[in-house]
Design a protein that fits this description.
Elements lengths: L2 H16 L3 E4 L5 H11 L4 E6 L3 H13 L3 E6 L5 H15 L4 E4 L16 H28 L9 E6 L12 H21 L4 E8 L11 H10 L13 H12 L9 E5 L9
Parallel strand pairs: 1-2, 1-4, 2-3, 4-5, 5-6, 6-7
């Protein structure tokens, strides 16, 4: 049997593993969230594609999910709003009957990068509500739903993945609010991992580096220089990250590749986290 034939059998096997799995991915209409949704779809997963305001982008993401072999639906909701969080869970349950995977991906950057001594409360409150408070209470809702679900053959009721950032530990004094909420999300991962491990729910953190999305489009020239042009570069892997890089990491978790891990952080950052001389 050729290597190509073996790989095709493996892909079919992987698809069988995930065909009954369902995922709720927040902020899935574009960027990293869309990359995650498409990668999950390649395994046959059903995906609830959450979006806050861009319905056209969400519809496009759903088309791409279906083209990749998955299924799903789009659901509008702002994770910062309690009623919207409840509706996200309710609509996903109505459509799928269960939630096997929650991916807390939705997040925003500061509208204005302000020095630490000048940044205001409005920006801080906005980032806290969307990037930390929203995921915390959505995770609380989904975890309670997962606890009601029958465990799978390995005894697991679900998986939860938090998408953070290298900003969780890298100081950026012109966007301190963003760094602080991402650090909070990293600690949230550990807290829920500890609380839910004995209930068959594992929790993970994926920590992206510099990823090419519309969020980073405004600083493209800066990071082209830092990653590619500079003699050494800030990352050993001399390229921008792609949304599918994060998607593949989430897929590995969704496929139960790490059953004996919880609270773990996976750096998907081109090696940025390495301390180099």
């Amino acid at each position: 049997m050729t290597l190509e034939a073996c790989l095709e059998i493996r892909r079919e096997f992987d698809c069988d593993l995930m065909i009954s799995k369902t995922a709720l991915v927040t902020g899935a209409s574009r960027g990293i969230g869309r990359g995650i949704a498409i990668e999950l779809a390649r395994t046959g997963a059903r995906v609830a594609i959450n979006y806050a305001g861009n319905a056209e982008a969400a519809a496009e993401a759903l088309s791409l999910v279906k083209a990749a072999g998955g299924d799903g639906f789009i659901v509008q909701g702002d994770v910062a709003v309690a009623a919207d969080r409840e509706r996200l869970v309710a609509e996903t349950m109505e459509k799928f009957g269960r939630i096997d995977l929650l991916v807390n991906n939705a997040g925003v950057a500061p509208k204005v990068r302000a020095d630490l001594l000048d940044c205001g409360e409005e920006s801080f409150d906005r980032l806290f509500e969307i990037n930390l408070k929203g995921p915390f209470f959505l995770t609380q809702l989904v975890a309670k739903q997962m606890l009601k679900q029958a465990p799978d053959a390995e005894g697991f009721r679900g998986r939860i993945v938090n998408i953070t950032s290298i900003s969780a530990y890298t100081a950026s004094i012109n966007r301190g609010d963003y760094c602080m909420v991402k650090a909070g999300l990293a600690m949230m991962t550990k807290l829920f991992a500890d609380r839910l491990a004995n209930d068959g729910i594992n929790v993970y953190e994926i920590r992206p580096g510099v990823i090419a999305t519309d969020m980073t489009g405004g600083v493209k020239e800066k990071y082209d220089k830092l990653i590619i042009t500079d003699e050494r570069g800030i990352t050993p892997i001399r390229r921008w990250g792609k949304p599918e890089d994060i998607g593949r990491a989430v897929r590995a978790i969704a496929e139960d590749r790490f059953p004996f891990s919880t609270g773990a952080c996976f750096d998907v950052d081109g090696g940025f986290h390495l301390h180099r001389l």
